[in-house]
Amino acid sequence: MNSVVIIGSGNVAQHLIKAVEKAPDLDLVQVFSRSHSGLKHLVPQEKITSNYEELKDATIYLICVSDNAIPSVSYALPFQGKLVAHTSGSVTLQEMSTQNRRAVLYPLQTFSKQKELDFTKVPLCLESEYETDYEILEKIASALSHTVYKIDSTQRQALHVAAVFVCNFVNHLYKIGNDICDEYDIPFAILRPLIMETASKITVLSPNEAQTGPAKRNDTTTINKHLNGLTKPNQKELYKILTKSIIDDVEKL
Amino acid sequence: MNSVVIIGSGNVAQHLIKAVEKAPDLDLVQVFSRSHSGLKHLVPQEKITSNYEELKDATIYLICVSDNAIPSVSYALPFQGKLVAHTSGSVTLQEMSTQNRRAVLYPLQTFSKQKELDFTKVPLCLESEYETDYEILEKIASALSHTVYKIDSTQRQALHVAAVFVCNFVNHLYKIGNDICDEYDIPFAILRPLIMETASKITVLSPNEAQTGPAKRNDTTTINKHLNGLTKPNQKELYKILTKSIIDDVEKL
Ligand SMILES: NC(=O)c1ccc[n+]([C@@H]2O[C@H](COP(=O)([O-])OP(=O)(O)OC[C@H]3O[C@@H](n4cnc5c(N)ncnc54)[C@H](OP(=O)(O)O)[C@@H]3O)[C@@H](O)[C@H]2O)c1
Ligand SMILES: NC(=O)c1ccc[n+]([C@@H]2O[C@H](COP(=O)([O-])OP(=O)(O)OC[C@H]3O[C@@H](n4cnc5c(N)ncnc54)[C@H](OP(=O)(O)O)[C@@H]3O)[C@@H](O)[C@H]2O)c1
What we know:
The structure is a homodimer. By secondary structure, chain A is α/β, with parallel strands linked by helices.
């Protein structure tokens, strides 16, 4: 049975703790957290440490800390030659200390402590410094999720940017929808079915086939009506540039 | 029992035909279509006409044609004093002919003929010229969907813009995610769970609470890494302006 130590107590760490505990083929040995407080509901006290020197032996150490802390945490580990993976989309393998066998297990999903999700459906993007470690990494990842991909550093970087577009930027457009509803005294809930359907549509159509709306039709009457109606400068600017980007795409076809 | 005539044979018309046929309290009297061909699988031949003069009596006539054709179709109707509603988010009530009792039944959803959906979950936004017609309109709408809202022309205009942001523009961001995946030989399917979760998250969190990512954290290292990695000018420009819009929002809090 493969054993796991998780370092961190944030969004990803907490989802991973639950996922490891659920996986019949994995053993959660220990969790490292600077502050124990946030983990009490998830892990028995004796499995939590805030002292690197107390870290126990495990097949893999998963560093689930803020991107900028990954290098220093990797250097703080008091052992050598062990398998150590971070979970970041944007940190390279090379930024970790060479004292251990470096790897990446990047879960391509948006995690918040407050929102439950089924970890077995989270795509896991794997990379390992040594070819021989890939098999172990894959076995551990497959115990956590049904979808596992081999993704190198360049691809992972690209995926992370793609994720910013389809998650962070998309959410910001939801926020703008919410702002417009507030301005006109409309409950935001009215937009939710449209938001869900827009996301679910691309499971049967490509985003290209699914594109609709005034920009796609180059319907300048409606576009101008909308631009005149928008009162906030950032909304106007985003409307213009996104419309232009859609029109340019159509013209390229 | 209220009776319905549907004018048009496009995306909305086809979904409405199925919804009316399913509703026990509604009777589909007839469908008007310039070209019969696209409706054969949905409606018996004798219920289809391409001649306005042949239109039968009904409680409501639903004009489901392209926005720019709504006025001319409303003028082409050979009768007077009947309840006539269009289904557009952006056309005002005033753009229709005064010869009939004007109304709007705007389904706030994205429809494609190829994609099935549960019409009872589509929010219907209602408006009527005469107060006395609102009750009839509401009864018909409630037979089609569980969520019905009274929305005036100004609100509907605003909602249509909001819908462009959370549907058309969001889909364009999916398209960019797809383009990036293609460029780096990554299957687009890897992004689908993230896309679904991002949409489903705002059923439990507000878009403001759900916002994450480098822009939200003002993580300039990652932002610059991403900007350097992007090769297409439109992707770079959208990345910059969306990042700025998120940062400005955070600063306003
Ligand atoms: N959230 C997501 O949606 C998501 C998705 C995919 C990948 N990731 C990646 O997963 C990693 C963790 O993200 P997250 O969202 O879980 O972050 P988070 O919720 O902000 O948690 C960050 C964790 O890092 C710890 N930490 C920060 N600096 C530290 C240091 N110098 N030494 C030790 N621990 C330190 C924090 O400990 P304290 O509580 O003691 O401060 C906290 O437990 C990041 O690399 C991120 O890029 C996140
Ligand atoms: N699709 C959506 O997601 C959606 C959502 C909410 C509201 N709406 C609104 O619903 C309405 C219809 O949209 P749609 O997506 O169903 O459009 P569509 O699929 O493009 O279909 C347009 C229909 O209009 C007919 N038409 C166009 N010009 C006409 C004319 N001069 N005389 C008679 N018929 C004419 C077309 O007939 P032919 O086939 O004979 O050309 C076709 O049946 C629009 O007002 C739109 O704003 C659409």
